[in-house]
Design goal:
Layout (H helix, E strand, L loop, with lengths): L2 H28 L1 H15 L7 H9 L1 H22 L5 H8 L2 H12 L6 H18 L11 H24 L5 H21 L9 H29 L1 H5 L1 H17 L5 H18 L1 H8 L1
Helix pairs in contact: 1-2, 1-5, 1-10, 1-12, 2-4, 2-9, 2-10, 4-8, 4-9, 5-12, 6-7, 6-8, 7-13, 9-10
């Protein structure tokens, strides 16, 4: 793997890891729905040059409703749930919960698409679920201001991500990934707009929240998608998928550095078990062993 590709991988992980920090900062002043509507709408507009080509516009017209479902369920609802959870949970902890996305994606693909899992992937699923249990152990308090419901929101968010991945495999195989991402962002942003207008904050958010919202839209969403697909083209899907292992480390780091969040042994243990399960599910761990 070339040094330039390693730097690209680390940059992408740092950007996506920072998204949990920006959500934690911006959500209290914007509110979850207005923030996500802004994030998706601005990111979609930033990616509109994708549709300057005739082929891309034709794909958009042909698959508009599949893209809409992908954007609303796979992205918008997930982002809203994570943003709402960030009102209670730390940025680092939210990023750790989100690291289990490949676990839920594999489970949904097996149940819905009938994808057969190898024995190592079954072990990975079990480890991934165990990692989540370690993370949430002793934290499922469902009283007022408890962490129970925000944690449930994170789990449902992961399920939405998993649904979105399977939906794209089933209905959007012939659509170029960047076209699919751009179309789903625009569509979801338009769907959320009327709901966001009814939930606007009573006063204008501060400059820090505005900066965080803009960074979420332009850097953590629009630019991140471009970098991700560029990494796939340069190094392949396996290398690009490995960004999953790095995102929670950056999520914890940014939360610790900027917000003075505490990192506990329970968080590290849950992360280690979850990522081991993710490695088995994606085949990264097995491939590395085979190569060696």
């Amino acid at each position: 793997m070339r040094i330039a590709d390693v730097l690209l991988l680390l940059t992408l992980a740092a950007i996506w890891g920072a998204s949990f920090l920006f959500m934690r900062v911006a959500t209290p002043e914007f509110g979850p729905i207005p923030l996500v509507a802004f994030r998706m709408g601005i990111a979609g507009l930033a990616l509109t040059p994708v549709f300057f080509g005739r082929e891309a516009r034709a794909l958009l017209r042909e698959h508009w409703w599949q893209l809409l479902v992908s954007g609303v369920v796979g992205s918008a609802i997930s982002f809203i749930l994570l943003s709402w959870a960030s009102l209670t949970l730390s940025a680092g902890f939210t990023s750790l919960m989100n690291s289990s996305v490949p676990v839920f994606s594999a489970l949904i693909a097996a149940l819905w698409l009938g994808e057969r899992l190898r024995p190592a992937q079954f072990v990975g699923l079990a480890l991934g679920i165990l990692g989540v249990l370690i993370l949430v152990w002793g934290k499922l308090e469902f009283h007022q201001n408890g962490r129970g419901w925000p944690i449930v929101a994170c789990v449902i968010s992961c399920l939405c991500y998993g649904f979105g991945a399977s939906w794209m495999k089933r209905h959007l195989q012939g659509v170029r990934p960047l076209v699919a991402s751009s179309g789903s962002l625009l569509g979801a942003g338009l769907v959320l707009l009327p709901f966001a207008l009814t939930k606007l904050p009573g006063s204008s958010p501060g400059m820090t929240s505005w900066f965080s919202a803009i960074a979420l839209a332009l850097v953590c969403t629009a630019l991140a998608f471009v970098l991700f697909f560029k990494l796939i083209q340069r190094s392949g899907a396996t290398v690009a998928t490995s960004v999953t292992f790095l995102i929670p480390f950056f999520g914890i780091f940014w939360g610790w550095l900027v917000l003075d969040e505490i990192v506990t042994g329970q968080m590290i243990a849950g992360l280690a078990v979850t990522l081991l399960g993710t490695g088995l599910i994606t085949g990264i761990v097995g491939r590395r062993k085979a190569i060696s």
